[in-house]
Amino acid sequence: QVQLVESGGGLVQSGGSLRLSCSASGFTFRDKAMSWLRQAPGKGLEWISYIKPNGDITSYAHSVKGRFTISRDNARNTLYLQMNSVKPEDTAVYYCTLEMGPEPRGQGTQVTVSS
Fold first, then answer.
1. What is the spatial distance between Cα 100 and Cα 54, in angstroms, rounded to a whole number?
2. C-alpha angle 69/102/81, rounded to 5°?
3. Which of 35, 38, 76, 87 is found 20 to 30 A from 62 (Cα to Cα)?
4. pLDDT tens, 37-76?
5. d(CA 85, CA 66)
6. Which of 2, 18, 25 is nearest to 87 (CA)?
């Protein structure tokens, strides 16, 4: 079955950087587009980024464009999200998912940005 395991979250100061990872198994990773979603405290799920199967096309929500970069390593079945210039409003649980999601997704990784 599909398994997605996010990691790399933590506490970071405003303006800092983090790199999230998503380890995928149970499906042919290189054949699937992938996305990152997030859920801030008390809010719904928000789609933030998408990448085509071979990584040649990416897209971003306005809220993260220019600060976050999605990438993938198909040889390692791993999806990444490089987060730069983070802001307190980036505080959320971050999830990876197939295509545009929201299902299936992993257990998420918590990112907390202090001001």
1. 16
2. 15
3. 76
4. 999 999 999 999 999 999 999 999 999 999 999 999 999 9
5. 9
6. 18
